[in-house]
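Schema walkthrough. Field components (list of strings):
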Amino acid sequence: MLHAAYLMALFPLAGFVVLVLAGRRLGDPWAGWVGTAAVSASFVVACLSLGSLWGEPATARHFVENYYTWIAVGHLQVHVGVLVDPLSMTMCMFVTGVSALIHLYSIGYMRRDSEFSKFFIYMNLFVFSMVVLVLSDNLLVTFVGWEGVGVCSYFLIAYWHERPTAASAGKKAFVYNRIGDAGFLIAMFLIFSKLKTLDMVTIFAHRASLGPDATTAAVLLLLLAATGKSAQIPLFNWLPDAMEGPTPVSALIHAATMVTAGVYLLCRMNPLLANSPDAMWVIAVIGGVTAFVAATIATSQQDIKKVLAFSTVSQIGYMTLAAGTGAYVAAIFLMVAHAFYKALLFLGAGSVIHGLHDEQDIKRMGGLARVLPWTYATFLVAWLAIAGIPPLSGFWAKGDVLDNAFRKSPALWALGVLTAVLTAYYMTRLFVVTFRGEARWATQRGGSHEPPHECPWVMRLPLVVLAVLAFAGGILGLPWVHRAGLGSWLGPVFGPALYDAREGAGLQVVLAVVDALAAVIGLGVAAWAWRAEVDRPTLEPQFLQRVWYWDDAYDALVGRPGQALARVASVVVESRIIDGAVNGVAEAVRASAAGVRRLQTGYVRNYALGITLGLAAVVAFVVSRVWWS
Amino acid sequence: MSFPYLTVLVLLPAAGAVAVAALPRVRRQVHETLGLVVALATLGFTIAMAVQMRPQDPGYQFVSHHVWASSIGVSWYVGVDGISVFLVLLAGVLFPLALAGARSRTDARSFVAWMLLLESACIGSFVSLDLVLFFLFFELTLVPAYFIISGWGFERRAYAAVKFFVYTFLGSAFLLVGIVVVAFLHQSQTGVLTFALPALEHTRFSSTTGILLFLAFTAAFAVKAPLFPLHTWSPDAYAEAPAAGSVIIAAVLAKLGTYGLIRFDLNLFPHASRTLAPLLLTLAVIGVLYGALVACAQSDLKRLVAYSSLAQVGFIALGTFALSTEGLVGGVLLMVNHGLVTAGFFLLIGWIYERRKSWQLSELGGLQSPAPLMAAAFTVIMLASIGLPGLNGFVSEFLVLAGTFLTHRWWAVVATAGVVGAALYLLWAYQQAFHGPPRPSVATTADLSWAERVVIAPLIVLVVLLGVYPQPVINRITPAVDRLVAHVEQPAPAAQPAVATTQGTGR
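Field assembly_structure (string):
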């Protein structure tokens, strides 16, 4: 089955092509079913491939196959191929699985949208790009997928293109990603100039000849790329704006695809990271700080999707922290768990927004538990999972990250625990304000509001499946069955971890208790603070609502000076200086030949005609000589 | 003797031009149809020739060489190699599309005739191996281009046409002097007066002479390309020319400049090229960044694309003077890719103008709702220009930058910032023109007609094809580029034994 691994990418691509050609004719809902079927087929292939890989002995779980040569010039030989190993298959499983559920959900959510089929065109292309990114065995082909998800996010965020805010948000996402991509490109140039290859397996085999400085530079450049794609400091602020897209898009971007790509890249390049302890410190600190900063912001947002957006930034920060501590297994564990509960949170939020007819302000919600029972119940599971309440998946995954952070640096661990408290706090605030308390949606807007309605089964089914996974996902990496879980499965890819968090059972129990306490404290404080009142300005300071003034700072430091520079370049340098010199010379010539006033047009015209006639004569002469010689 | 493809390719459009001009003014369709048939026949011949080329041969093929003025050493000497063949193909593809997709509003007869003559001159320039012959064709391109701008252009067409003509003509003056000096120096070294490029390649120059001659040639080519800071004719010319004129001038004619740098600068002055590479690379990088910066400040879609073109040409020059195989292959490929993308841009912009009578971004807005197909086509072309992998622009841009990094690391790093810039101004422009609620006046805009779809479709197919599977093209470019890079890398004259040229007898 491994030889058919390419089908994982081919099915969504086929879906894309079919929908481009016939999507409008298929229409609503059949275009959606085609898209869903394509991604589901991809998931089936992923399952079968996983089975085949599982059947191999642990050391032989590594399969490379090349299909065709994309670019071959000089030393640069780029083949399109796949690298199937436990890491890429783990990624493929949740990418295609969660994406299939999101596609199914979208059939209901996008119902009656005027460009229904276009939505699924982009969604299928998105999944295709992500699978390419994950499966490729070559950095340059990975970059194809990397850019592909970037451009698809641009399309999907700006999907409601008549809304100016959506259009701006799409553009912002793409440009921020491009900044990171420049890092990716330069990293590739650097690696290629030293090793004359971009093939991952070869890079890893010859990584020693890269030298320590080049390794550090390459890893830091890849980190820059990762901060763009995975929305980490300093390039994180496109992600909240990305909420302008339809809610299933948010689920797709945040849970299954796109933002996990940066962390995946760092994990995939782990042999390089291992050669650069300095760069790993930078990664860990960026991850830890991002996790904390984003969590503080999430405590003060009013838009249900923005809370979740900053929550994603924060959770990805945990994963980056894990990668920086060499705990790649923990990073992937959290990534999988997060895919489940964050997809569930977004789809649940979508169900709420759907039910309330496009209301996104949590202050106008409340009391939804009774009217949206399915959404409520599944959201409850996701809330407890992300808050880190045992025994749900988030507790185990986050615990794994924090254990490793403690071994690397107690300071980073403390920051992580503080973030855990905040996580439980903001999620509880969101949950309580949205679902509990009085039904503010009924009283506001003149009270003429239609009562919220529960969503159709195509939307409910994914919620239920994801709720089960979010609840039980921790099974993948329970600490005491480590040897049989995700750790041993991924072990051959990552080699020995820097810190085996399972050493020292006593310490581990203590840390786990601290994690659980952090969750309970955050949860308790929020439940108490938000139990009745929804307007508490002291708990939502302007500083946090305005995202630490991050956008304002960029605008003042980069945006405006950049615009001013462009204007100066255009108006002064281009028009006055460069073109001014040209026109000045022309003017001087004209003035000096004061008598010949008709030089301007008549002369050139005659001259041009002269050239033509002269050349015609020459050519005629040539041709005659050639023909009769 | 095999079929004289190149002679036919040069003469067929010219003959077509004469035929079109000779037809009486009956109905415009007659001239337009005849012009299109001639351009398509030319395309057919270019494809037939390209198919018959030997891919692995680094030398010139389909050579025809007829001495016709032996006393002054000038000959009808034409041939193509893996570098020029794709430029001939580019011209072959774009002329019929421009004729079909951007027809003139008035006087179709003269317009079509000038276009066909321009095709002849462009192809002639790309295949000339005799410097005088090249110069004649190079100059001949100016004439139809001048008349197309001044005759069918927009408001400031007279200014733009004169500026274009005088500016490029001044550059050519340096070129002519340079050509004559090279030939005489070669004669003094070998006793043979010739203008044939393969012979002149082995002329030896003192380092100062080499640098001066290099600068003389480069002056002409840098204006034509256009390279910063000699570019200011181009935004005016591109903006004021009629759509077909913009397509051909930006996509084909300007390639003569970058082609000249590769074909003549590198071949004739390998040592000066190496010495002055940092200077040219610096200008190229400035062009990349400066073009992006000025593009950001444009409020006019056509001018914005003109400046984006300046940035792209910077990338071509960067790949050229990186003097590595990867960079140079990327540069040649980018000439083709940029030609396709720019043609797509100017065709689409022309169609927008026909509908909205404006290129001002502030007067467009919301076009995507009434014209989704046009928006989709624009998006694909835009993303190719931005350098999205999977489309053609990326392959060449990556090769250029990776190749530059191998030899001139910091130039490549700075130029990579231009990659971000392209996304910035093009997406901004797209947002202004296509996103947002359609204004009442825009809401009724017609989507692409069937004729327009037929014209844009081949470009989009090529953009995707060359992005996904560029290898057949790369395979044919590489041998010629390898030969050129080896030629440039040969040791400096001091350490070099006396060169025996094929005709050379020594002094």
